């Protein structure tokens, strides 16, 4: 009995962690609204991560058969680098992230992570490898501490504190009378959109996954706070050589990416490259940049008014 209880206890805690991370994903992506027809293949194996390279190979996908969102799309997101996906509203940027989580299967083509077709790996191992700051972060009816700790339930209070400092939210939390014990969520204190985003970033930093996705993660922040937070995120990503994908409207938040992919009308609009390369090639990106650069700074605060919409 004794011999058995040890591994069972261990399995129990692994199970709880897994359950938690799945709950996390489901809540974050509001799965009620998403049709999850995706099942593990009988031969599915756990994802084996090497550097975290992502390849879209001739991917065609649409939510409805008569309305394709991505048409024969191919690109590579290099391992350990920062990639941005930009393009007009509705062009399928968030869809790329949803496909990577395998909330849907592609209709044609394939998606590879470190050479493995994501349809051949267990969805559990796939989703455990990915962390996301979604467009709208749901909060749980609980304390701020718990809401951050949700990223990794085994994290200590010190680790929560360190993550929230890096996410530039510690000072605000400390200014609340009840600090980290402040209740948030529907029945708690209302926190602003920008505070929520930073809370989501601290949650993600705590989870510390190999692949990190940021979907308009700083859109509700003023330019100054946004730059400070992005600076912190960038240095963590660099230091750990993590693969990251940023979806953004405001080009100024992603121009320092190693690679920028421009999506338009269901296709990759021009050969991906760095900001400099895309500006020099004088294509879609450079005209978008020119338009945004002439917008007054004030309209950039708050709601992402300076966008590609
Ligand atoms: P934005 O910049 O506005 O967030 P996006 O480029 O991220 O847009 P997606 O969210 O990927 O765009 O959506 C691409 C298209 O697919 C949109 O026209 C959207 O209305 C549609 N779409 C998204 N989710 C679904 C769904 N679950 N069912 C049907 N259509 C959907």
TrEMBL record:
Subcellular location: Mitochondrion membrane
ABC transporter domain ranges (all copies): 54-290
Family as reported in the entry's similarity comment: Belongs to the ABC transporter superfamily. ABCB family. Heavy Metal importer (TC 3.A.1.210) subfamily.
Subunit details: Homodimer.
Name of the protein in its database record: Iron-sulfur clusters transporter ATM1, mitochondrial
Name of encoding gene: ATM1
Residue range from the parent sequence: 404 to 712 of 712
């Amino acid at each position: 009995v004794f011999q058995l209880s040890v591994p069972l206890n261990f399995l129990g805690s692994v199970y709880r962690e897994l359950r938690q991370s799945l709950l996390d994903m489901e809540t974050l992506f509001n799965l009620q609204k998403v049709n999850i027809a995706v099942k593990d293949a009988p031969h599915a194996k756990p994802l084996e991560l090497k550097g975290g390279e992502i390849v879209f190979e001739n991917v065609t996908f649409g939510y409805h058969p008569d309305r394709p969102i991505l048409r024969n799309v191919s690109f590579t997101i290099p391992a350990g680098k920062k990639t941005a996906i930009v393009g007009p509203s509705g062009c399928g940027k968030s869809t790329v992230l949803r496909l990577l989580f395998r909330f849907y299967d592609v209709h044609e083509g394939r998606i590879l992570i470190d050479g493995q077709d994501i349809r051949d790996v267990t969805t559990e191992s796939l989703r455990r490898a990915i962390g996301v700051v979604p467009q709208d972060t749901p909060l749980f009816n609980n304390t701020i501490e718990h809401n951050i700790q949700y990223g990794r339930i085994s994290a200590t209070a010190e680790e929560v504190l360190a993550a929230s400092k890096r996410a530039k939210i510690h000072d605000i939390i400390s200014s609340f009378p009840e600090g980290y014990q402040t209740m948030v969520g529907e029945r708690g204190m209302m926190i602003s959109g920008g505070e929520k985003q930073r809370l989501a970033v601290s949650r993600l930093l705590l989870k510390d996954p190999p692949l990190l996705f940021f979907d308009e993660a700083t859109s509700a922040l003023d330019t100054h706070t946004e730059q400070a937070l992005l600076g912190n995120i960038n240095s963590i990503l660099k230091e750990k050589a993590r693969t990251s994908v940023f979806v953004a409207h405001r080009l100024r938040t992603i121009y320092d990416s190693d690679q920028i992919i421009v999506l338009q009308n269901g296709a990759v609009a021009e050969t991906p490259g760095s900001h400099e390369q895309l500006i020099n090639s004088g294509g879609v990106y450079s005209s978008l940049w020119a338009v945004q650069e002439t917008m007054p700074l004030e309209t950039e605060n708050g709601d992402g008014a300076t966008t590609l919409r």
